[in-house]
Amino acid sequence: MALDRNQIAQRISQEVEDGFVVNLGIGIPTLVANFIPKDKFVMLQSENGLLGMGPFPSEAGIDADLINAGKQTITTAAGASFFSSADSFAMIRGGHVNLSVLGAMQVDQKGSIANWMIPGKMVKGMGGAMDLVAGARRVIVAMTHTDKKGNPKLLSECNLPLTGINCVNRIVTNMAVMEVTTKGFELIELAPGVTEAEVIEATGAQVIISSKLKEISFS
Question: How far is 102 from 30, CA to CA, in rounded Å?
Fold first, then answer.
């Protein structure tokens, strides 16, 4: 049984440690905030100038002026601070973000990521992704293992314009958890009901099977 979007986010929440500053990208990554344990002190950072994002507001609590980098309305947590986007990117480029979680269209076996454009389609620009993959201390990608046509999104080499080179540490998909190593993709966890053979077939690069391979757990 492949994981759904919420389960991918729930698994990634296990990568968040107490005291972390975390930046969550648009899409599946935003869901990670819903699964961070309450006993962990975590500050969520947004590129548009906020440290300390809270949960999404109820309809009655929406403030149209309070948004994240993806233009979603948000709330603030106790101790939150606002600052300019220049200060925000100084924080990112200075290595003060412990973990960045991003979506992607492609990731290759060297950890390069393509997540900002498809040639021939209208795009608004790369945004903060370029800085996040270069400046964050650790980068995790949340994505489906294949596209809507069943084509692999984990490849030996990306063929879309790159956002960053050799920067991804780990990928959590609907099928598996893959670690980027010097030898390529290492399969370290399988979604319940998914087999090694299915992951290998859905991956467009060589897959190394970890000696400690286990099933993804949410406990």
Answer: 9
Tokens 């692999």 belong to residue: 152
State the amino acid at position 1 in one-letter form. Answer: M
Residue the block writes with tokens 């906020």: 50
Sequence-ordered list of residues with C-beta below 8 angstroms from that of 120, at least 6 positions apart, any chain: none
> Of the listed 15, 17, 47, 201, which one is catalytic?
47
Residues 77 and 36 sit within 8 Å (Cβ to Cβ) = no
Is 198 a known active-site residue? no
Q: How far is CA 145 from CA 40, 100, 118, 130, 166, in A?
A: 29, 19, 18, 22, 19
The residue written with tokens 């699964």 in the block is: 35
How confident is the prediction along the chain (219 residues), in pLDDT tens digits per residue? 799 999 999 999 999 999 999 999 988 999 999 899 889 999 999 999 999 998 889 899 899 999 988 888 999 999 999 999 999 999 999 999 999 999 999 999 999 999 998 777 766 677 789 999 999 999 999 999 999 999 999 999 999 999 999 999 999 999 999 999 999 999 999 999 999 999 999 999 999 999 999 999 997
Confidence (pTM): 0.94
The answer to whether 100 touches 139, Cβ cutoff 8 Å, is yes
Measured distance CA(27)–CA(30) in Å, rounded: 6
Number of helices followed by number of strands (H, E) in the chain: 5, 13
Nearest to 109 by CA among 172, 169, 185, 43: 185
